[in-house]
Fold this sequence. Notes:
Radius of gyration: 54 Å
Oligomer: single chain
Number of strands: 0
Keywords: Coiled coil
Amino acid sequence: MTDSPLNPTPGVVPIVPDPPATDAASIEDLRAALVLQQEADALVAEALETKRSALERAETLVREAEHAAARAEEEAATAAAQRIATAREEADRLLLEAQDQAARITREAHAEVAALRHDAADLRSSAKETVEAAERELERVRSGEAERERQLLATRAEAVRMIEALERVAVTLDDELERVRAEVASARRNLAQLPGDVDTSSVVSPSVVLQWPHQVPAQVADPASTDPDEAMRGSKHRRGDAGSRRGLLRKTRT
């Protein structure tokens, strides 16, 4: 029994039995030691197998984790591309809407300024006609008719009120033009705040220049052929037409 070698497991230091003894107790001890050595070898082999299985499982888990990470990155990239495309489409839509709004504001501003200039020209023509009629009537009244002179003074007062109204309209036109320019500037600022590069060259500021005539001189000319009542009725009729056009313009704008 002392000549038969043990079967050691790789990596495990074998237990070398004591030298052979002559009594039976020593033989029993050797047998017990051999059994213990075999059990220890079995445990070591089982531990090595468990370690190998654990390593294989860990490698499998690592591969699965790598595949899952790759899929997650691919899905994230796809979702990001979709979000970018959606944001670009939304920005293009907002840009088109802003450009349409700016063009509409510009068209309305030009139309409104043109209508106001037309009204101002009508008022100026009406005031000029009234003043001329008043001057002719004043010259006629100077022939000595007191009643005619009273009517002439009333007509001249009406002409002065017309001229003052024309001056107020001029101030209103200037304020309206400044408001229109401010709206166009605001539209340009809104376009500049949109995402992406925005071309604001298509937004044209109104370049209408209102030139008002100087105040009509109050010289008195020959009014021999004009009836003051007829002149006053014509002046009121023209003012009514101009007021109707301004009211229609405001109603169309709102």
